[in-house]
Each structure stands twice: as structure tokens, then as C-alpha cells.
Amino acid sequence: MSIRCAICGLEMNSPEKAILEGWVPYVMEGDSEQEGPFCASCLDALFETNEYGEFVLMEKYRGKISYLDGGGDEMDPDDLDMDGIVLEYCEN
Ligand SMILES: [Zn+2]
Residue 44 Cα, ligand 1 centroid: separation in angstroms? Predict the structure, then answer.
């Protein structure tokens, strides 16, 4: 079983390994929960933690992130705008 980051599309073939590397199953965008999973690189680049230890999308990125649903749907062309930015972070 493999999992895929809902932002950059990075795949990890072991959920356990992913967790060890800092992936999280969900994040908060404002007051709403957004299901992931999300990789450590994206978390580092785009999120901050709140008082409960949850990852919250930074204010400046709200409404600008396109989440992959992992269901194999075609990517919306609008998603491509974010790709360059996110991949840059994730290659670090
Ligand atoms: Zn990612």
C-alpha cells in the first residue's frame, strides 16, 4: 500500500515510514479539516502548528492550495500553477 501527499503528489510506499518521516493524515485550513496525507516537506513549507499541535495552513496560502484527492481524477489545469512552487519546496 502506498500513500500520496495531497499537495505535491509525493508517494511513499509505506504509511509507517511516512509517519516516521513526519507525514500527517490531515491538516486545518482555517476552521475546516482537510484530509491528506501531507508530506513533511509540504508541512515545513506551507504550514504552522497551532496550540493543539495541529498543522494549520499559513494565512498567506489559504485558498491558494489545490489538494489532490488521491482518487486518480484528472488534475485541474489550475493546479499546475501551484506545482512549480510546491515541488521546489519538496525537493529540498
Ligand atoms: Zn508534499
Answer: 9
